[in-house]
Amino acid sequence: MGENYVDLGFPGMLLGIAALGVMIAGVIRYFMRSPLPWMVRQGIVLAFIYNISGTGVEMSLPKLFGSTIMFFLVYILLVKFALPIGLKWLYARAGGDRTQPT
């Protein structure tokens, strides 16, 4: 918040933080609504939270925006292409009769 206050002033600081909150909430909502098992969805969201907050408390707004966008792009490709194949393989290894993950 301190760096945002110096860069953007008082009203701009609040707008930047609000935009960041809306962006993070949107990414979390997208992954929690994906057609994956509940535990996988929670794991992706936990990885997202650790990714954007893993560097500590003091981080600039552009770095948070960049890490959020990169995580979203990479994991959307994983959810779309890699995770369904992996889950089908895991279900087959477990001897399950389900073909589609819930």
Q: For the terminal residues, how far apart are their CA atoms? A: 40 Å
| Share in β-strands | under 5%
Q: How is the biggest beta sheet arranged?
A: none
- Count of discrete alpha- or pi-helical segments spanning 4 or more residues: 3
Order of helices and strands: HHH
Q: How many structural domains in the coordinates? A: 1
Q: What is the arithmetic mean of pLDDT? A: 83
For the secondary structure, the number of strands is 0
Classify the secondary structure makeup into a structural class. mainly alpha
Topology:
Elements: H1 2-32, H2 38-53, H3 61-94
Helix pairs in contact: 1-2, 1-3, 2-3
Overview of the structural elements:
The protein is mainly α and 102 residues long. The chain has one domain. The protein is 79% helix and 0% strand. It contains three helices and no strands. Helix 1 packs antiparallel against helix 2. The longest helix is centred in the C-terminal third of the chain and has 34 residues. The chain is elongated. The model has no long low-confidence stretch (mean pLDDT 83).
